[in-house]
């Protein structure tokens, strides 16, 4: 398998450009920085990825792995919902974010995370040429966006970590224009950061309390997926 087949090549190359563009050392050739990302040749994308590996950037985040069942299912749901913009909460290392951008290369995506390093790396991808992506350091329970800003808000593998999950869903519903798509584990595990365990009834009641008009559910390999419809 070639290196381009191993990675989300455009995203990985953009990350390298964004992280190394202002490096004190001349690691990346100027032509690899100045050419629009979409115009880079396959061999130039490969060169950028190799530069990132040599510079010991965290390139593993952009590897094409066997897609998680829950990620695959949510991407299918989004195909049907056809949003024009989306807020991804708690993007982390990009387990969902990078497959999302690969599947929807024109979608306007805003990412939020509470960790500075995550926000920095996501914005490096933007700076490297993925102009439809941006990230902000923000807590889901205290969103600064206006009401009904995003067609869809994704809350994937996030709610089980939050001290006040109802407040988080209230905010997600508030800033969503059409739908909130959520996933949570349905079985206990040994992750000490998982402080809640949810079932369908709990999630449904929480969404209705937050103001959603209806909720439908799907299940994928020990995970519950909820699609909450937002009223006008």
Topology:
Layout: H1 3-6, H2 9-20, H3 30-34, H4 42-54, H5 69-81, E1 85-89, H6 97-103, E2 108-113, H7 116-127, E3 133-137, E4 150-156, H8 165-175, E5 176-185, H9 200-210, E6 212-220, E7 223-230
Parallel strand pairs: 1-2, 1-4, 2-3, 4-5
Antiparallel strand pairs: 5-7, 6-7
Short description:
It is built from 9 helices and 7 strands. The protein is an alpha/beta fold.
Estimated helix fraction: 25-40%
How far apart the termini lie comes to 48 Å
H/E topology pattern: HHHHHEHEHEEHEHEE
Sequence stretches where pLDDT stays below 50 over 5 or more residues: none
Radius of gyration: 18 Å
Beta-strand portion reads 15-25%
- Tally of alpha and pi helices: 9
Summed over residues and divided by their number, the pLDDT gives a mean of 92
What overall form do the CA principal axes indicate?
elongated
Strand order of the largest sheet: 3-2-1-4-5-7-6
Instruction: Describe the largest sheet.
Output: 7 strands, mixed
Class by helix and strand content?
Answer: alpha/beta
In total, the number of strands is 7
């Amino acid at each position: 398998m070639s290196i381009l087949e191993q990675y989300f090549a455009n995203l990985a190359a953009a990350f390298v450009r964004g992280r190394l563009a202002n490096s004190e050392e001349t690691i990346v050739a100027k032509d690899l920085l100045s050419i629009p990302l979409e115009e880079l040749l396959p061999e130039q994308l490969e060169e950028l990825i190799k530069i990132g590996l040599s510079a010991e950037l965290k390139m593993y985040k952009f590897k094409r792995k066997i897609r998680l069942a829950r990620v695959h299912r949510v991407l299918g749901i989004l195909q049907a919902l056809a949003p024009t913009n989306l807020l991804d909460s708690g993007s982390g290392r990009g387990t969902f974010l990078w497959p999302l951008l690969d599947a929807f290369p024109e979608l306007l995506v805003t990412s939020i995370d509470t960790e500075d390093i995550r926000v920095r790396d996501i914005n490096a991808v933007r700076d490297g040429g993925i102009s439809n992506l941006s990230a902000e350091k923000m807590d889901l329970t205290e969103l600064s966006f206006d009401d009904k800003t995003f067609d869809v808000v994704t809350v994937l593998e996030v709610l089980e970590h939050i001290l006040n999950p109802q407040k988080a869903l209230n905010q997600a519903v508030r800033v969503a224009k059409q739908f909130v798509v959520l996933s949570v584990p349905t079985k206990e595990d040994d992750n000490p950061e998982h402080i809640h365990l949810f079932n369908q009834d709990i999630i449904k009641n929480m969404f209705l309390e937050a103001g959603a008009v209806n909720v439908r559910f799907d299940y994928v390999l020990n995970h519950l997926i909820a699609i909450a419809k937002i009223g006008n």
